[in-house]
Specification:
By secondary structure, this protein is α/β, with parallel strands linked by helices. The chain is built from 16 helices and 16 strands. It starts with a strand and ends with a strand.
């Protein structure tokens, strides 16, 4: 790859104040070599140089939760009840062939790149996401899902997961990691949670779990009641004992929470749960538009941040939110908690890198990190607006360029 130099009216490094008339030099190995005012960043004569004018250069956005393999299912589930929605999704997934999953993941990844996203944390059970990330030279973590609500399934489910992870290992590399995802308390038994957590620790694998997402899930765990309990009972599956625990407390009891754990959603949490998450070192993938679409409520993001929890922002799947739009998610964050525009941009970039334990590699524009960046055209508002405010007012149609390791993965026509 050739070295390249990008310049624009504004540059947001995230680890540092915005730079007016900023520039970025990326070396041939794909790493940032210099960042700063345009006048101070070197201009090697043999380097491709581009000036994007009235635009902002910022680190590539990091989507800490999505399901690329579900691309194409948008608008196909009408159920408003969440357990019924889950059942319909299972039916849709069963209708797809393996190649269709790969094609769906390819389309989903293209949409992410077109929206300025450079790193993705994906959960799925088809294996399509890790293949597509690897084949495209992408960046991210692909969490292989495992299911098994009946306690008697735990041994077989774990064996299947281990075989699947071993088979998918050929797709892992420097920038693509494989993790595991025991799906959720309504689809994974306590014994299986414990077994997967123990195995992931021994193998040092990242782990992601959908947790404390809905009231129905909380009712199942605390009281063995509600629609998820009814569905399991109808299938002859033993219910979790009515312990009165929260879903997060239940995870802690089964040894799931650690610094390698990504807790997806975490809406139905109380102060003790937040303390548990903080003490364990677990991270949270906050998906505000998905939570809103399913009427789950709002996660206490401000309290989590004050507790020192690593939080990143995710879109969830196209099935839940329609087109994957991290900038819309960022605006939704501001509707829930009082944060500055700069703080919201940080959540979508460096915050995501922290949540995924990638902070040394990406998430900000700093010498030595990967040259992952997005260039977003901005429009002056007529008022004095910070570059971060201008970015938050934009949309995916304003993305001019997305670079991954200095390489174009999207360029607007």
């Amino acid at each position: 790859m050739r070295a390249r130099r990008l310049a624009a009216r504004w540059l947001i490094p995230v680890e540092g104040a915005p730079i007016e008339h900023g520039a970025l030099l990326i070396g041939p190995e794909g790493r940032v070599q210099a960042v700063g005012p345009d006048s101070s960043v070197p201009r090697p004569p043999d380097v491709l140089a581009e000036d994007f004018g009235n635009a902002v250069i910022l680190p590539g956005l990091i989507n800490t939760h999505t399901h690329l393999e579900l691309t194409g299912f948008a608008g196909q589930i009408q159920a408003r009840d969440f357990p019924a929605w889950i059942r319909r999704l299972r039916e849709l997934k069963a209708s797809r062939e393996p190649l269709e999953y790969v094609e769906a993941a390819q389309q989903g990844l293209k949409a992410c790149y077109a929206g300025g996203v450079t790193t993705i944390a994906d959960t799925g059970d088809s294996g399509a996401a890790v293949q597509v990330l690897a084949e495209s030279g992408g960046s991210g973590v692909a969490y292989q899902e495992v299911f098994g609500p009946h306690p008697d399934q735990a041994e077989a489910s774990l064996a299947g997961l281990r075989d699947r992870v071993a088979a998918l290992g050929r797709w892992s590399g420097d920038r693509v990691r494989i993790g595991v995802s025991p799906h959720a308390p309504y689809s994974v038994s306590g014994p299986l949670f414990s077994a997967v957590a123990a195995w992931s620790r021994s193998e040092r694998l990242p782990l992601a779990v959908h947790i404390a997402e809905s009231v129905a899930e909380a009712e199942l765990v605390a009281n063995s009641s509600g629609p998820f309990a009814e569905a399991l009972r109808a299938r002859g599956i033993p219910l979790p004992s009515a312990s009165g625990q929260s879903p997060v407390a239940w995870l802690a009891e089964h040894g799931v929470l650690s610094e390698r754990t990504l807790c997806i959603h975490a809406v139905q949490v109380d102060p003790l749960d937040i303390e548990r998450l903080a003490d364990s070192g677990a991270a949270v993938a906050h998906c505000p538009l998905s939570n809103q679409a399913h009427r789950h409520g709002a996660a206490p993001l401000g309290t989590m941040l004050r507790a020192g929890i690593r939080v990143g922002i995710g879109t969830d799947s196209e099935v839940s939110v329609g087109p994957l739009d991290m900038l819309a998610e960022a605006r939704a964050v501001r509707s829930l908690v009082r944060l500055s525009a700069d703080a919201v941009i940080e959540l979508c970039t460096l915050g995501g890198a922290r949540a995924l334990s990638l902070v040394g590699e990406t998430g900000s524009l700093r010498s030595g990190k990967w040259g992952d960046c997005a260039v977003i055209r901005v429009r002056e508002s007529g008022e004095e607006s910070s570059p971060a405010e201008l970015v938050l007012a934009s949309s995916p149609t304003d993305v001019r360029l997305t670079c991954l390791g200095g390489r174009d993965v999207y360029r607007a026509l």
